[in-house]
Structures are given as C-alpha cells and as structure tokens.
C-alpha cells in the first residue's frame, strides 16, 4: 500500500461530489451533499441495527438491495428519524430531486440524514440544497472537502482517509470520509453508524464481493468505536466501486490485498471518529489480547471503552487502573484477574491479581498525551480485540445538556 | 405497613452498631463500622457478579455459606480490591479483630470494604478503628447514623429506610441503610452491589427463606439502579434477622407481607442511591410497560437509564426524546416504535412512530423538577420494568476525573 498524502475522497476515478449550505444547520459550512457516479455502479452499505431506524435507512435498505447505486444524497442538521410516514416520503423525495438534477432513477440513490431526531425535514431548504449541489458537482479536492463538510454535525474536524493498493499489475485507489462525534457506538451489519461514512474506489468488483468485504472491514473498524455506546437511528456506511480504474478484485490474492487496504482506510476513519468524540481531548485505544475468544476480548474491550468511570479517569490523566480491571470483570465473559496483566501507556500497573508499584506522577504525565493506550493481557487464550474511544469531559456534558433547547 | 418516620437501622430489636473515624478516608465522618447481634442469627447476602471481586467479597461468600452471621465489620475509603493474597489476609484479619472485641468466631462476621481499588488496606488504622468501634456499640438512632456514616464515600446524603409490617398477630420491623454514588450498576444474585446495603429485621425466619426473599427484593430494587452502569468489585447487600421480636415468617400469607415490606425498604434505599448519584441534580425514574416480556422491558429500561445522551439531556431539562426512543431501540430486544408511546413527566412526546406536538418551554420547566419520570408504553405485551437513575452533570466528570490523583 502507498501513503495517504494528497489523496482524497474523489481520488478514485469516476466520482463527483458537492456540498452546499441550505440553512438546515444553524450555520455553515455545508449541510447538503451529493456524491455521484455517471451511472449505477456496484455498491454496498451497512446500516444501524437499532430497532428504531430513520426513514433514510429504511429507504436506503430498499435502494441498495440490488447491489448497485449511482450515488448518495445527504443532509446534516436533521436526522429525519422518528418522523413517521411523512419522514419516509421526505427521504424518497430527496432521491427524486437528486435523480432529476444528476440523472437516473430515484431508486439509484442512497438517502442519508444526520442531526436531531424527531423533527420533520425542512423540505424546501433540502430540495433547494440538492438542486444547488447538482450545479456544483466536480472531482477536485475542494469538492471532496465540501462534501465532507456537508455531513458534519458536532464534529470539530473532518475525517478522511485514502490509500492506493497494487492489485496484480494495476493500482486501485480506496478513499473515504466519515462524520461522527456523538451517538457513536455502532453495531453495523451489512444488513448496520449516526456514524456516516462514504467510501469510494475505482476498482472493478462484483456487488456480492464488495458487500462481504465491507462487512468484514466494518466489523474491525467502525464497529470497534464507541464514544457513548449509543447505536444511532441513522448509522450508515456505504462504499461505491466506480470500476473506472484498471484494477480488478477477482482472485483470492487480489481480494486479500484489497481487503487489507479497505480495512486500513476504515480503521483510519474509525480512529478519527473516536478522537473527535464530543468534548474529547484524547484518543484512547483499548487492546485486549490472549482472552478465551475474540468475542470475549471484544466484550471486555467494549466494557472498558464504554465505562464513564474509565473515560473520566482518562480525562484526568489518572492512572486509576482499578476501574479498568473492574470494567473487564463486568463484561459477562470469562476473565481471571489472577492471570492478567494491565499496562497503561506501556507501564504495567496490575499483574496477577495484585498492584504493581509505579511512579504515579510520571504515569499521569504520560496519560496527558493525545493518544493513550490501555493494554490488557488475559493470558487465557488467543482471543484479541481493539476498541477506540475518547475521554469523558465536562465539555461532553455541556454539548449534550444544551444541544436541543 | 406502617410509615417510616422515627424508625432507623436499629429499630428492629436485637442489634447494636457503631461508627468511628480511623483516618482511612481523608476526612470524617466515620470510616469504620460495626453492626452486630448478640449471637449468630439467620442472615443472607447478595454479592457482586463482577468477575473481579474484592477480598472481602471472597471471604464474605465463605462466611455467609451457613446462613448465619453475628454481624458486619466494614470500612470505607479503601475497597481492598485487586490486592491479591495480602488483601485476603487483611479481610480475614478484620473479622478476627471484630470477633475479639465483640465476641464469637471470625467466621461469624461479614467483612466489607468500599473506596479506591488496588491499594492495600492501612491495617493499623483499620484495626484501631474496629477496636474503637467495639467500645461504642449501642442501639440508639445516633448509633445507627454513625454506622451509616462509616460506609459512605462520595455520597452526599445518608440513605436509610424502615417499615413496620403486621405478620399475623405480631408486628415486625425491617430497616436498612445503603451507600453508593458511583460505580453503581449492580447485578446482584444471592450468590450479587460498590453498592453496600445492610438490612436488619427482628422477625423469626429461616436462613433459606431469608435468602430467597432477599434475592427477590434485590432483583426489583438494587438491581434496577444504575448511575454509571458499572458493576463494582465490592457490591454487597446483607440482611440480618435477629429473631428478637414476636413475629414469625412461616405461612405463605406472612411471607408475602414480609416480602412486600422488604421490597418497600429496598426500593426506598435504591431510589436514594440513584438520587445521590455522583454529581446528580435529580432522580430519573424510567418505566417501561407493555413490552413483549419483563426481560425485554428491563433491557429497554436499562438502556434508557444508562444512556449518557439521555442523562445529559435530563441534566439540561431538555425534552430531546429522540435519544430515549433510540436507546430503547438499541437494547437488543423486540421493540416496534410504530406502536409505542413515550411520555416525559406525563406529557406525550412520541406516539406511533411520529412526534407529538408539545410546548417545549413548558415541558423543559417540568423537567427541572427534582424527580423526573420517563414512561415508555410499548403496546406489545405485558412485560414491565422500572429503573432508577440520575442526570449526568459536569460535576460527575469533576468527581471522577480528579478522584485519585
């Protein structure tokens, strides 16, 4: 794989995008976006597993069913969730307007929305926004940035990642953008994020293979992020393969190379989402290894990453490791603290049931870094998992106590 | 049942208690307590189900095995958890000192500790405290208050409850105290709370019946409280039946009356724990009814009560109900929002998949109350559950970011 410098969402050939401000969010930058191909192309999507899913998720599931899409039409500032029949009509209307201004049929578009739940979309603004976006479609880095802006809500930073990967004699490009800062604890299947992420690639690939590879990558990336453990009504990850490049994903070897590259892009985006969690000052990476199974490791990693007590301690640069061991113990999976070793920023603090002496002031200083590691070795098997989260700050409370009123 | 006024932990006959300050906590009031009977009496206890359990829990499970105990020896300020072999020796030593100063065998005492995890007990202070407490045992209201103080950590208020209940021609008294403000999300079995709660009664009852009744009561009270969804290493609920009164729990009718009275005391304590959650400004009661099963109702109630997004909205008096419906949908149990009705403080905000118009300013005013109700009617079955939690405030972060360093 090559580096990510200079690459963006529209580096894979065959895509155009735009983002405009239509007045749905209280202030710019953009809140309506289009990401499109010239024709329907192999596509795959993973949606929320929440029993309460937004209208665009319902319509999007229907539109992705045939494995081909022409593009995405998206707005931020309003999730179009819990909005009943009118919400469904509005999601369909977004696709109709996109089809009119870009081409093709409404069923060839994936509608997406993110923002507050329980309010009807301001459809005049949304429609004007889509028509406006249609006028400004292009494939420059600037276009990629504007589309990325159009999906942001409480995000403080844009999230993007891209790689080039050699497949046989050809080179394919994979790129993606994501948004998400709150209501992040996705459980995606390709059947599951208000994580939103859109991925582009110019590889030639079948819809079925693309679908399976997206599911695998999401399982080891987006589904391993938690900010507040809340699976959103709108979580959506979608990938589009324009086929505009020479590279083909066919043989097992190419598939593996493509899968690895896709995972790299998805993990880079997942880490950026965690690092930009609402009110976050640092990225916390929780690694659990030698658990009895991968599932057990995952349950422990999630329990640690979800614990408000652990997250507050991380905010305070506090090596209060008892909360971490205790969180692992409450995950409901086999765990024997008598065998375990816990390290914070590489420093052992707990080993085989008892505390290890450490320099608290020094470790607290190390925990003040922008990236913090929590490593739990269970010495019980071969299971492993990695989760990404952030600290819990007073700003998180401020953002979420005063979001709506 | 009679009212609770004037009753306290030592109102049931046959108990004495004391609480002293031994310098384990950074400041008074008391941090070492004794609650004892004259002889071993029927007793039952429920401990944490965390795989990581503290030394006093390990020793306590052993001592309660025969269903009879003489009392409790407890300290706050240090949880004696994750402290290895030395921790086990220290927990046993607490029982030995208690037996020496009060009477009986070490195995007749339940040791309990609460406070920071991963530090060895300062045994000189602990032993001096137990000896001191032994000198001041008594059965007055003042003694009950001092014992209650001895178990507090970040609690801002004492938690106590008591009732009198008629059983046949006699009257029994049931009383209890509890502590808990953080690391609260107990899953107790009688086999499960740093929730600590100690209950006294003067009824005559067999250990086996007492055990079953405690399990039932804990399931509908302590196990329905969540502050941070963290099952502690030290959670312990214990009940002692002195038999010093005339009332007997034998026939089914008496058992039901006693069970109802015990549940009333446990629920009163559970609500006090939730209301005094770290940084809390209000008690939030989440009721789910007409779910497909009690288990489903419970999963949804817990998901709502655990959601930091919901808890922050409650802190901001924000009727942002989408977060509540979304939390119910992510509980992993059957839930159809098209059938559901959600009420906040009695005001319908969501009905059958769509928003209900309401006066946001008025409802926000109603949410500023000290007690807030969230009622979700699933219209799908007969399952029901109640959970108690609190709001999530900046103070929660302050308390937990700066607890240790």
For the secondary structure, the number of strands of chain A is 14
Name the helicity range of chain A. 25-40%
Q: If you compute it from the alpha carbons, what radius of gyration of chain A comes out, rounded to the nearest whole angstrom?
A: 21 Å
Mean of the pLDDT scores of chain A?
A: 93
Quaternary structure: homodimer
Number of domains of chain A: 2
Low-confidence stretches of chain A: none
Termini separation of chain A comes to: 47 Å
At CATH level 2, the architecture of the largest domain in chain A is 4-Layer Sandwich
What share of the residues of chain A does DSSP label as strand, in percent? Answer: 25-35%
CATH superfamily of the largest domain in chain A: L-amino peptidase D-ALA esterase/amidase
Question: Secondary-structure element order of chain A, as H and E?
Answer: EEHEHEHHEEEHEHEHHHEEEHEEH
Principal-axes geometry of chain A comes out as globular
Q: Structural class of the helix and strand makeup of chain A?
A: alpha+beta
Q: Which fold name is given in CATH as the topology of the largest domain in chain A?
A: L-amino peptidase D-ALA esterase/amidase
Report the total helices of chain A: 11
Largest sheet of chain A: 8 strands, mixed
Query: In CATH, what is the class of the largest domain in chain A?
Result: Alpha Beta
- Show the largest interface: A-B, 75 and 75 residues
Reconstruct the topology from this structure:
The structure is a homodimer of 405-residue chains.
Chain A: E1 16-20, E2 32-47, H1 55-64, E3 68-78, H2 84-102, E4 109-116, H3 123-135, H4 141-150, E5 159-167, E6 170-179, E7 196-201, H5 207-219, E8 236-241, H6 252-275, E9 283-291, H7 294-306, H8 308-315, H9 322-329, E10 341-344, E11 347-351, E12 354-355, H10 360-366, E13 371-377, E14 383-390, H11 394-401
Helix pairs in contact in A: 1-2, 2-3, 5-6, 7-9
């Amino acid at each position: 794989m090559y580096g990510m410098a200079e690459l963006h969402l529209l580096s894979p050939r065959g895509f155009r995008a735009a983002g405009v401000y239509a007045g749905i969010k209280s202030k710019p930058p953009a809140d309506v976006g289009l990401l499109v191909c010239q024709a329907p192309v192999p596509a795959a999507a993973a949606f929320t597993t929440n029993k309460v899913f937004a209208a665009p998720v319902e319509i999007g599931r229907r539109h992705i069913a045939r494995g081909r899409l022409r593009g995405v039409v998206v707005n931020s500032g309003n999730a179009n969730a819990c909005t009943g029949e009118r919400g469904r009509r509005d999601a369909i209307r977004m696709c109709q307007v996109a089809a009119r201004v870009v081409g093709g049929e409404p069923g060839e578009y994936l509608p997406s929305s993110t923002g507050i739940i329980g309010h009807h979309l301001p459809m005049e603004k949304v429609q004007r926004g889509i028509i406006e976006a249609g006028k400004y479609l292009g494939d420059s880095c600037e276009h990629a940035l504007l589309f990325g802006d159009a999906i942001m809500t409480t995000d403080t930073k844009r999230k993007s990642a891209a790689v080039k990967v050699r497949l046989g004699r050809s080179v394919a490009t994979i790129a993606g953008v994501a948004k998400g800062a709150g209501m992040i604890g996705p459980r995606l299947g390709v059947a599951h994020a208000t994580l939103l992420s859109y991925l582009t690639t110019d590889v030639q690939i079948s819809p079925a293979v693309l679908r399976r590879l997206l599911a695998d990558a999401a399982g080891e990336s987006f589904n391993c992020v938690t900010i507040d453990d809340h699976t959103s009504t709108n979580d959506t990850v979608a990938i589009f393969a324009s086929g505009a490049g020479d590279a083909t994903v066919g043989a097992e070897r190419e598939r593996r190379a493509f899968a690895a590259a896709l995972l790299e892009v998805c993990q880079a985006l997942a880490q950026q989402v965690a690092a930009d969690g609402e009110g976050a000052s640092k990225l916390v990476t929780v690694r659990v290894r030698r658990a009895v199974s991968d599932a057990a490791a995952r349950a422990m990693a999630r329990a640690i990453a979800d614990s408000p007590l652990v997250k507050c301690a991380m905010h305070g640069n506090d090596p209060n490791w008892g909360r971490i061991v205790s969180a692992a113990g409450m995950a409901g999976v086999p765990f024997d603290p008598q065998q375990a070793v816990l390290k914070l920023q590489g420093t052992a603090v707990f080993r085989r049931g008892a505390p290890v002496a450490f320099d608290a002031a020094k470790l607290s200083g190390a925990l003040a870094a922008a990236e913090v590691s929590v490593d739990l070795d269970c010495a019980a098997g071969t299971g492993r998992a990695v989760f990404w989260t952030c600290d819990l700050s007073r700003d998180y409370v401020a953002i979420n106590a005063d979001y709506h009123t």
